[in-house]
Design a protein that fits this description.
heterodimer, A: 247 residues, mainly alpha, Membrane-bound Lytic Murein Transglycosylase D, Chain A, two-stranded antiparallel ribbon, 10 helices, B: 86 residues, 2 helices
Protein backbone atom coordinates (compact mmCIF):
# COMPACT_ATOMS: atom_id res chain seq x y z
CA UNK A 1 0.00 0.00 0.00
CA UNK A 2 2.89 2.23 0.79
CA UNK A 3 4.14 1.57 -2.75
CA UNK A 4 0.79 2.60 -4.19
CA UNK A 5 0.68 5.87 -2.26
CA UNK A 6 4.27 6.66 -3.24
CA UNK A 7 3.43 5.93 -6.87
CA UNK A 8 0.38 8.16 -6.65
CA UNK A 9 2.41 11.05 -5.26
CA UNK A 10 5.05 10.67 -8.01
CA UNK A 11 2.31 10.50 -10.66
CA UNK A 12 0.74 13.69 -9.36
CA UNK A 13 4.11 15.40 -9.28
CA UNK A 14 4.82 14.44 -12.88
CA UNK A 15 1.30 15.51 -13.97
CA UNK A 16 1.63 18.85 -12.28
CA UNK A 17 5.06 19.56 -13.76
CA UNK A 18 4.27 18.41 -17.32
CA UNK A 19 0.81 19.95 -17.71
CA UNK A 20 2.02 23.57 -18.12
CA UNK A 21 4.53 22.48 -20.77
CA UNK A 22 1.76 20.99 -22.84
CA UNK A 23 -0.41 24.02 -22.30
CA UNK A 24 2.35 26.38 -23.58
CA UNK A 25 1.57 25.43 -27.19
CA UNK A 26 -1.72 27.34 -26.96
CA UNK A 27 -2.30 30.81 -25.49
CA UNK A 28 -3.04 30.67 -21.86
CA UNK A 29 -5.63 32.86 -20.25
CA UNK A 30 -2.86 34.74 -18.49
CA UNK A 31 -1.13 35.47 -21.76
CA UNK A 32 -4.41 36.55 -23.29
CA UNK A 33 -5.02 38.87 -20.36
CA UNK A 34 -1.50 40.29 -20.62
CA UNK A 35 -1.84 40.89 -24.37
CA UNK A 36 -5.29 42.42 -23.97
CA UNK A 37 -3.95 44.78 -21.33
CA UNK A 38 -0.91 45.72 -23.47
CA UNK A 39 -2.99 46.36 -26.60
CA UNK A 40 -5.65 48.29 -24.69
CA UNK A 41 -2.95 50.51 -23.24
CA UNK A 42 -1.43 50.98 -26.69
CA UNK A 43 -4.87 51.75 -28.15
CA UNK A 44 -5.53 54.36 -25.50
CA UNK A 45 -2.09 55.88 -26.07
CA UNK A 46 -2.60 56.04 -29.85
CA UNK A 47 -6.10 57.50 -29.52
CA UNK A 48 -4.69 60.24 -27.28
CA UNK A 49 -1.86 60.89 -29.75
CA UNK A 50 -4.34 61.05 -32.62
CA UNK A 51 -6.48 63.58 -30.79
CA UNK A 52 -3.39 65.69 -30.06
CA UNK A 53 -2.24 65.49 -33.68
CA UNK A 54 -5.69 66.47 -34.98
CA UNK A 55 -5.71 69.48 -32.71
CA UNK A 56 -2.19 70.49 -33.81
CA UNK A 57 -3.13 70.07 -37.48
CA UNK A 58 -6.18 72.26 -37.05
CA UNK A 59 -4.04 74.89 -35.35
CA UNK A 60 -1.50 74.77 -38.19
CA UNK A 61 -4.27 75.11 -40.78
CA UNK A 62 -5.58 78.16 -38.98
CA UNK A 63 -2.08 79.65 -38.84
CA UNK A 64 -1.59 78.92 -42.55
CA UNK A 65 -4.87 80.64 -43.51
CA UNK A 66 -4.02 83.66 -41.37
CA UNK A 67 -0.56 83.87 -42.92
CA UNK A 68 -2.07 83.80 -46.41
CA UNK A 69 -4.23 86.77 -45.52
CA UNK A 70 -1.28 88.60 -43.91
CA UNK A 71 0.92 88.01 -46.95
CA UNK A 72 -1.78 89.27 -49.34
CA UNK A 73 -2.31 92.37 -47.21
CA UNK A 74 1.45 93.03 -47.02
CA UNK A 75 1.88 92.60 -50.78
CA UNK A 76 -1.10 94.85 -51.52
CA UNK A 77 0.42 97.55 -49.31
CA UNK A 78 3.78 97.12 -51.02
CA UNK A 79 2.28 97.38 -54.52
CA UNK A 80 0.24 100.41 -53.44
CA UNK A 81 3.45 102.10 -52.31
CA UNK A 82 4.91 101.53 -55.75
CA UNK A 83 1.72 102.44 -57.57
CA UNK A 84 1.52 99.15 -59.41
CA UNK A 85 -1.15 96.47 -59.54
CA UNK A 86 -0.84 92.83 -58.57
CA UNK A 87 -1.52 91.88 -62.20
CA UNK A 88 1.40 94.03 -63.36
CA UNK A 89 3.72 92.44 -60.83
CA UNK A 90 2.56 88.97 -61.86
CA UNK A 91 3.15 89.79 -65.54
CA UNK A 92 6.61 91.15 -64.66
CA UNK A 93 7.43 88.02 -62.70
CA UNK A 94 6.22 85.79 -65.56
CA UNK A 95 8.31 87.61 -68.14
CA UNK A 96 11.35 87.59 -65.88
CA UNK A 97 11.03 83.86 -65.27
CA UNK A 98 10.71 83.19 -69.00
CA UNK A 99 13.83 85.25 -69.68
CA UNK A 100 15.75 83.46 -66.91
CA UNK A 101 14.78 80.10 -68.38
CA UNK A 102 15.76 81.17 -71.89
CA UNK A 103 19.13 82.44 -70.67
CA UNK A 104 19.70 79.13 -68.88
CA UNK A 105 19.09 77.37 -72.22
CA UNK A 106 21.45 79.70 -74.07
CA UNK A 107 24.12 79.21 -71.39
CA UNK A 108 24.21 75.52 -72.27
CA UNK A 109 25.13 76.33 -75.90
CA UNK A 110 28.62 76.54 -77.34
CA UNK A 111 29.92 79.91 -78.52
CA UNK A 112 29.56 78.74 -82.12
CA UNK A 113 25.87 77.91 -81.62
CA UNK A 114 25.31 81.04 -79.59
CA UNK A 115 26.36 83.27 -82.49
CA UNK A 116 23.02 82.42 -84.16
CA UNK A 117 21.14 83.86 -81.17
CA UNK A 118 23.05 87.12 -80.98
CA UNK A 119 20.04 89.19 -82.07
CA UNK A 120 17.83 87.55 -79.47
CA UNK A 121 20.45 88.26 -76.80
CA UNK A 122 20.69 91.88 -77.85
CA UNK A 123 16.88 92.18 -77.61
CA UNK A 124 16.87 90.51 -74.21
CA UNK A 125 19.63 92.82 -73.03
CA UNK A 126 17.58 95.86 -74.05
CA UNK A 127 14.45 94.46 -72.37
CA UNK A 128 16.36 93.63 -69.18
CA UNK A 129 17.63 97.24 -69.11
CA UNK A 130 14.04 98.49 -69.38
CA UNK A 131 12.92 96.11 -66.66
CA UNK A 132 15.68 97.36 -64.38
CA UNK A 133 14.17 100.84 -64.66
CA UNK A 134 10.68 99.60 -63.73
CA UNK A 135 9.15 100.56 -60.39
CA UNK A 136 8.69 96.90 -59.66
CA UNK A 137 12.45 96.60 -59.59
CA UNK A 138 12.44 98.66 -56.40
CA UNK A 139 11.38 95.43 -54.72
CA UNK A 140 14.74 93.93 -53.74
CA UNK A 141 14.03 90.37 -54.87
CA UNK A 142 13.12 91.55 -58.39
CA UNK A 143 16.03 93.95 -58.47
CA UNK A 144 18.40 91.10 -57.59
CA UNK A 145 16.90 88.82 -60.21
CA UNK A 146 16.99 91.44 -62.97
CA UNK A 147 20.60 92.33 -62.14
CA UNK A 148 21.62 88.67 -62.17
CA UNK A 149 19.86 88.25 -65.52
CA UNK A 150 21.61 91.26 -67.00
CA UNK A 151 24.98 89.94 -65.84
CA UNK A 152 24.30 86.62 -67.52
CA UNK A 153 23.20 88.29 -70.77
CA UNK A 154 26.32 90.48 -70.75
CA UNK A 155 28.53 87.45 -70.17
CA UNK A 156 26.88 85.61 -73.07
CA UNK A 157 27.21 88.61 -75.37
CA UNK A 158 30.87 88.98 -74.41
CA UNK A 159 31.54 85.36 -75.11
CA UNK A 160 30.19 85.62 -78.67
CA UNK A 161 31.70 88.99 -79.34
CA UNK A 162 35.20 87.76 -78.55
CA UNK A 163 37.10 88.47 -81.73
CA UNK A 164 38.57 85.51 -83.47
CA UNK A 165 41.95 86.18 -85.14
CA UNK A 166 44.37 84.44 -87.44
CA UNK A 167 48.10 85.13 -87.74
CA UNK A 168 49.24 84.88 -91.32
CA UNK A 169 52.04 82.43 -92.07
CA UNK A 170 54.28 82.32 -95.12
CA UNK A 171 53.21 81.28 -98.59
CA UNK A 172 56.19 78.95 -98.88
CA UNK A 173 55.43 77.08 -95.69
CA UNK A 174 51.72 77.59 -94.97
CA UNK A 175 50.29 78.46 -98.39
CA UNK A 176 48.43 81.28 -96.68
CA UNK A 177 46.22 83.45 -98.87
CA UNK A 178 42.71 84.71 -98.08
CA UNK A 179 41.16 81.87 -100.10
CA UNK A 180 43.17 79.20 -98.25
CA UNK A 181 42.65 80.83 -94.85
CA UNK A 182 38.86 80.99 -95.36
CA UNK A 183 38.95 77.31 -96.42
CA UNK A 184 40.46 76.21 -93.10
CA UNK A 185 38.11 74.15 -90.94
CA UNK A 186 38.57 76.35 -87.89
CA UNK A 187 37.98 79.55 -89.90
CA UNK A 188 34.96 79.25 -92.25
CA UNK A 189 35.57 75.85 -93.82
CA UNK A 190 34.49 77.62 -97.01
CA UNK A 191 36.99 79.26 -99.37
CA UNK A 192 34.26 81.48 -100.90
CA UNK A 193 34.04 83.33 -97.60
CA UNK A 194 37.44 84.98 -98.20
CA UNK A 195 35.88 88.43 -98.90
CA UNK A 196 34.63 88.48 -95.32
CA UNK A 197 38.23 88.38 -94.05
CA UNK A 198 39.22 91.00 -96.59
CA UNK A 199 36.39 93.37 -95.67
CA UNK A 200 36.93 92.78 -91.99
CA UNK A 201 40.57 93.80 -92.31
CA UNK A 202 40.40 96.73 -94.74
CA UNK A 203 42.86 98.62 -92.53
CA UNK A 204 45.56 96.08 -93.39
CA UNK A 205 44.47 94.49 -96.64
CA UNK A 206 44.42 96.99 -99.46
CA UNK A 207 44.79 94.35 -102.14
CA UNK A 208 43.22 90.96 -101.31
CA UNK A 209 45.96 89.22 -103.26
CA UNK A 210 48.56 90.55 -100.90
CA UNK A 211 48.72 89.56 -97.26
CA UNK A 212 51.90 89.58 -95.26
CA UNK A 213 53.29 87.01 -92.83
CA UNK A 214 52.71 87.75 -89.14
CA UNK A 215 49.71 89.95 -89.85
CA UNK A 216 47.03 89.27 -87.27
CA UNK A 217 43.76 89.18 -89.19
CA UNK A 218 40.35 89.52 -87.59
CA UNK A 219 37.97 86.72 -88.49
CA UNK A 220 34.49 88.25 -88.49
CA UNK A 221 31.58 86.07 -87.38
CA UNK A 222 28.99 84.79 -89.78
CA UNK A 223 28.15 82.00 -92.12
CA UNK A 224 27.30 84.06 -95.16
CA UNK A 225 28.74 87.06 -96.96
CA UNK A 226 26.98 90.35 -96.36
CA UNK A 227 25.73 92.50 -99.24
CA UNK A 228 28.80 94.74 -98.98
CA UNK A 229 31.16 91.80 -98.89
CA UNK A 230 29.50 90.25 -101.95
CA UNK A 231 29.66 93.56 -103.77
CA UNK A 232 33.36 93.99 -102.91
CA UNK A 233 34.05 90.45 -104.10
CA UNK A 234 32.17 91.00 -107.38
CA UNK A 235 34.11 94.21 -108.00
CA UNK A 236 37.35 92.32 -107.36
CA UNK A 237 36.36 89.52 -109.77
CA UNK A 238 35.43 92.05 -112.47
CA UNK A 239 38.76 93.83 -112.08
CA UNK A 240 40.61 90.53 -112.27
CA UNK A 241 38.66 89.57 -115.35
CA UNK A 242 39.38 92.86 -117.08
CA UNK A 243 43.10 92.56 -116.30
CA UNK A 244 43.34 88.96 -117.49
CA UNK A 245 41.44 89.61 -120.76
CA UNK A 246 42.55 93.06 -122.06
CA UNK A 247 40.61 94.38 -125.05
CA UNK B 1 -4.18 4.22 7.87
CA UNK B 2 -4.87 2.96 4.38
CA UNK B 3 -8.07 4.90 4.23
CA UNK B 4 -6.26 8.04 5.26
CA UNK B 5 -3.66 7.41 2.57
CA UNK B 6 -6.32 6.89 -0.10
CA UNK B 7 -8.12 10.00 1.00
CA UNK B 8 -4.90 11.95 0.84
CA UNK B 9 -4.15 10.70 -2.64
CA UNK B 10 -7.63 11.48 -3.94
CA UNK B 11 -7.61 14.92 -2.35
CA UNK B 12 -4.15 15.65 -3.80
CA UNK B 13 -5.28 14.51 -7.25
CA UNK B 14 -8.37 16.68 -7.09
CA UNK B 15 -6.53 19.76 -5.88
CA UNK B 16 -3.69 19.20 -8.34
CA UNK B 17 -6.13 18.69 -11.16
CA UNK B 18 -8.01 21.84 -10.28
CA UNK B 19 -4.84 23.89 -9.97
CA UNK B 20 -3.44 22.61 -13.24
CA UNK B 21 -6.68 23.01 -15.14
CA UNK B 22 -7.16 26.49 -13.69
CA UNK B 23 -3.66 27.60 -14.64
CA UNK B 24 -3.58 26.27 -18.17
CA UNK B 25 -7.09 27.01 -19.39
CA UNK B 26 -7.09 28.62 -22.87
CA UNK B 27 -9.14 31.72 -23.77
CA UNK B 28 -12.37 31.09 -25.59
CA UNK B 29 -12.85 31.73 -29.31
CA UNK B 30 -14.82 34.86 -28.47
CA UNK B 31 -11.98 36.14 -26.34
CA UNK B 32 -9.43 35.39 -29.05
CA UNK B 33 -11.57 37.32 -31.55
CA UNK B 34 -11.68 40.20 -29.08
CA UNK B 35 -7.87 40.20 -28.93
CA UNK B 36 -7.53 40.06 -32.71
CA UNK B 37 -9.99 42.93 -33.15
CA UNK B 38 -8.04 44.93 -30.62
CA UNK B 39 -4.78 44.22 -32.49
CA UNK B 40 -6.40 45.31 -35.78
CA UNK B 41 -7.70 48.47 -34.15
CA UNK B 42 -4.20 49.28 -32.82
CA UNK B 43 -2.70 48.73 -36.26
CA UNK B 44 -5.27 50.99 -37.88
CA UNK B 45 -4.59 53.65 -35.26
CA UNK B 46 -0.84 53.38 -35.85
CA UNK B 47 -1.43 53.93 -39.57
CA UNK B 48 -3.65 56.94 -38.89
CA UNK B 49 -1.09 58.41 -36.50
CA UNK B 50 1.62 57.97 -39.14
CA UNK B 51 -0.51 59.76 -41.75
CA UNK B 52 -1.38 62.59 -39.39
CA UNK B 53 2.30 63.02 -38.49
CA UNK B 54 3.23 63.47 -42.14
CA UNK B 55 0.30 65.85 -42.67
CA UNK B 56 1.50 67.85 -39.68
CA UNK B 57 5.09 67.92 -40.99
CA UNK B 58 3.84 69.19 -44.37
CA UNK B 59 1.78 71.91 -42.74
CA UNK B 60 4.69 72.94 -40.50
CA UNK B 61 6.88 73.31 -43.58
CA UNK B 62 4.16 75.33 -45.32
CA UNK B 63 3.72 77.62 -42.31
CA UNK B 64 7.49 78.14 -42.02
CA UNK B 65 7.66 79.08 -45.71
CA UNK B 66 4.75 81.48 -45.38
CA UNK B 67 6.34 83.07 -42.32
CA UNK B 68 9.50 83.57 -44.35
CA UNK B 69 7.50 85.08 -47.21
CA UNK B 70 5.69 87.45 -44.86
CA UNK B 71 8.95 88.57 -43.25
CA UNK B 72 10.45 89.07 -46.71
CA UNK B 73 7.45 91.17 -47.75
CA UNK B 74 7.68 93.29 -44.62
CA UNK B 75 11.38 93.83 -45.19
CA UNK B 76 10.68 94.72 -48.86
CA UNK B 77 8.11 97.26 -47.70
CA UNK B 78 10.67 98.94 -45.45
CA UNK B 79 13.25 99.08 -48.22
CA UNK B 80 10.75 100.47 -50.73
CA UNK B 81 9.59 103.10 -48.21
CA UNK B 82 13.21 104.18 -47.70
CA UNK B 83 13.76 104.18 -51.46
CA UNK B 84 10.73 106.39 -51.99
CA UNK B 85 11.75 108.59 -49.07
CA UNK B 86 8.56 107.88 -47.16
Amino acid sequence: MKKISLFSIIAIAIFVSVSPLVAQEEMTREEWQTQMATYKAKQAELQAELLKLNAEIEELKTQSTKLDADITACEDALYALLGVTRAEVEAFEKELTQMENRIAELQRMSDAELVNYKDELVRMDARAKEMAKSKICMIPRYNDRVNALRQKITALLNSIQKEKTYTVGTWAKDRDCLWNIAKKKDIYANAWMWPKIWQGNRDKIKDPDIIKPKWVLKIPEGKELSKEEKSAANKYYRQKASVSSPE
Amino acid sequence: MNKINNLLIITSLLIGGLVVSGCSSSPSAEELKQLNDLKASVQALEKQVGEKKSEKAGLEKQVAEKNGKLQQCQSDQEIVKKGLGK
